[in-house]
Design a protein that fits this description.
mainly beta, 7 strands
Length: 70
């Protein structure tokens, strides 16, 4: 699914246009963010693609959902 990752005043946020859902990112598997999973406040876990550490935000990426209900 397409996910836009961006920085906000409160931290990182993920927006899923198809679901019209924006949630704060509350957990990251990899310190550099890319190539691991992230956890959203609503419980969703998404696997992000492996991108360079200095990838500028905001960016839209193809992520894979690995847990939580729709």
């Amino acid at each position: 699914m397409k996910v836009m990752i961006r920085k906000t005043k409160a931290g990182l946020s993920a927006y899923v246009p198809k679901k019209d859902l924006e949630e704060p990112i509350i957990g990251v598997e990899n310190e550099e963010l890319w190539g691991g999973s992230i956890t959203l406040r609503n419980g969703w876990r998404l696997v992000l693609p492996d991108l360079p550490r200095d990838t500028p935000l905001p960016i839209t990426v193809e992520a894979r959902k690995i847990s939580a209900e729709d």
